[in-house]
Amino acid sequence: MSKYVATQSMNYGMGTEMTHRVFGKHAEEALKAVESEAERLEKMLSRFTPESEISRINQSAGIKCVKLGPDTYEVLSRAAEFSSYCQGTFDVTIGPLVNLWDYKNSTEIPNEARIKQVLPLVNYADLIVDPREKTAGLQKMGQSLDLGGIGKGFASDKFLEVFREFGISSAFTNIGGNVAALGTKPDGSPWSVGIRHPRQDNRLMGAVSVADKAVVTSGDYQRYFVDREGKRRHHILNPSTGYPSESGVISVTIVADNATTADALSTIVFVAGMKKGLELLKNFPGTEVILIDTDLLVYVSQGLKDSFQTDVGIRVNILD
Fold it and tell me: Residue 108: its pLDDT value, please?
């Protein structure tokens, strides 16, 4: 038996399966603390929990601002920054569109007139975050926040903070495909994170080796339905059009120092497309990307050329 034995847990939260692998003397206590942290964050940040701070902001849209705890303030501030930076490809006020498409309960395309009706409500500039008062509010009635493009990444970073508090230096957390690695494996080797094939179940395009990094993928295969014309209607909506993004890429994996950044950027690049997305990434030094386009061609940034291993028969194009 290996001298390195992982303590593992699997549970359900934030609408998905969460798994953790932890090495260290206090691994069991750390896992229990992370499970408690997941419950705490969900109660605070889920728009499906009526008493959450995000729900209270949504319920108070056009009426008043809401006092926030430090974590909600932090994630909303980051979401507002990304919304402002990315030129319309990410918008934390996308809630009305997400409600309209309702992937949980419907396999029908919303009425075009309804999409046009709610589009004006999607405008990050209407989110007012006050750094002095630590409050946030939406300017128009009917507006709502949705943290789907950043919330799981934020939670991943918080989980790693908990592990560190327990003296853990080797851990791996996976929230529905949002991966964050603390350090290396105990033997010093990197963690290996698989990148799913967008069109073949149970097959990988490849795997990336990382240490102390977050690896987050946005793909059109994660939640979708096929409409009456046989067109795939996935859950990553373009805030500018109100429809699922059609940017020419079907999978974007971001490797970054923290999961909050990786989560937001994977959505941003997916919606922006390859050319614009790569331009946007230039302002995030040290951030790497794996792109898969509609022809199933794989593109990998320079920094990953030695750490990304493909499956048999898959060729990689290295980005300049």
Answer: 86
Q: What is the pLDDT of residues 54-63, one digit of tens each?
A: 999 999 999 9
Is the pTM of the predicted complex or chain greater than 0.90?
Answer: yes
Which H helix or E strand runs over 210?
strand 204-210
For residue 242, the one-letter residue type is G
Question: Which token pair is 108?
Answer: 């029908």
CA nearest 181: which of 73, 190, 217, 112? 190
The strand order across the sheet containing 191-196 reads 191-196, 204-210, 308-310
Domain containing residue 57: CATH number: 1.10.3980.10
- How many Å is the Cα radius of gyration of the chain? 20
Bridge partner residues of 193 (DSSP): 208
Asked if residues 239 and 88 have their Cβ atoms less than 8 Å apart, the reply is yes
Structural domain includes residue 18: no
Last residue of a domain, which of 108, 123, 138?
A: 138
The SS3 of residue 93 is coil
CA 283, distance to chain mean position in Å, is 19
Alpha helices in the chain (DSSP H): 27-45, 53-59, 70-85, 95-101, 112-118, 151-165, 259-272, 274-281
- For the record, the structure tokens of 295 come out as 């022809």
Instruction: Assign 3-class secondary structure to 232-289.
Output: EEECCECCCCCCECCCCEEEEEEEECCHHHHHHHHHHHHHHCHHHHHHHHCCCCCCEE
